[in-house]
Amino acid sequence: METSIANPQKMKLCISSVKGVQVVDIQSLIYIEASSNYSHLFFTDRPRICASKPVHTYATLLEDSNFVRVHKSFVVNLDHVTAYVKGAGSNVLMTDGKAIDVARSKREVLMRRMREYFKY
After folding, report:
1. On the CB side of 87, how many CA atoms lie within 13 Å of its CA?
2. According to the model, what pLDDT value does residue 10 have?
3. How far apart, in whole angstroms, are the C-alpha atoms of residue 8 and residue 55?
4. Which residues pair with 50 in a beta bridge?
5. Most exposed among 34, 49, 52, 106, judged by the fewest C-beta atoms under 10 Å?
6. What number is the average pLDDT over the span 52-58?
7. What rounded mean pLDDT belongs to the chain?
8. How far is the C-alpha of 51 from the C-alpha of 47, rounded, in Å?
9. What's the pTM value of the predicted model, to 2 decimals?
């Protein structure tokens, strides 16, 4: 069954961790943070998961959904972005209160994706 960006609530993600493989709904995934060759995945409904894959793996896997790589260390779920703060140190504010830096090289990509995803 093919799932599109228009229906992300049906998409699931398998995450390999030290505990095994966990299956999660991607709609509850707020953001992913790089940690060397590991990734920390942060959710609305469960504790974070330390995954045994690097962040670029998840960035590639989720690029056809509502996730955007905004920094070498972060991939964010557009559904959980509450604001974009412009400036020299621009960042996005997430639903869990986290402010995530947006790299200068990623600003244009983020703004394009926000225009596509949200009514602008």
Report:
1. 7
2. 75
3. 20
4. 40
5. 52
6. 95
7. 90
8. 12
9. 0.88
Where do we find the tokens 């690097």?
54
Contact by Cβ (8 Å): 49, 41? yes
With beta carbons less than 8 A apart as the criterion, state whether 80 and 96 touch.
yes
Q: What DSSP assignment string belongs to 52-63?
A: SS-HHHHHHHTT
Confidence label for 85 from pLDDT (cuts 50, 70 and 90):
very high
| Residue type (1 letter), 80 | H
Beta strands 99-101 and 12-17: pairing type?
Answer: unpaired
110 burial via Cβ count (<10 Å: 0-12, 13-18, 19+):
buried
Indicate the CATH number for domain 10-117.
Answer: 2.40.50.1020
Average pLDDT over residues 36-60: 95
pLDDT tier for residue 1 given thresholds of 50, 70 and 90? very low
Three-state SS string across 106-118, please? HHHHHHHHHHHHC
Of 82, 4, 15, nearest in space to 46 by CA: 15
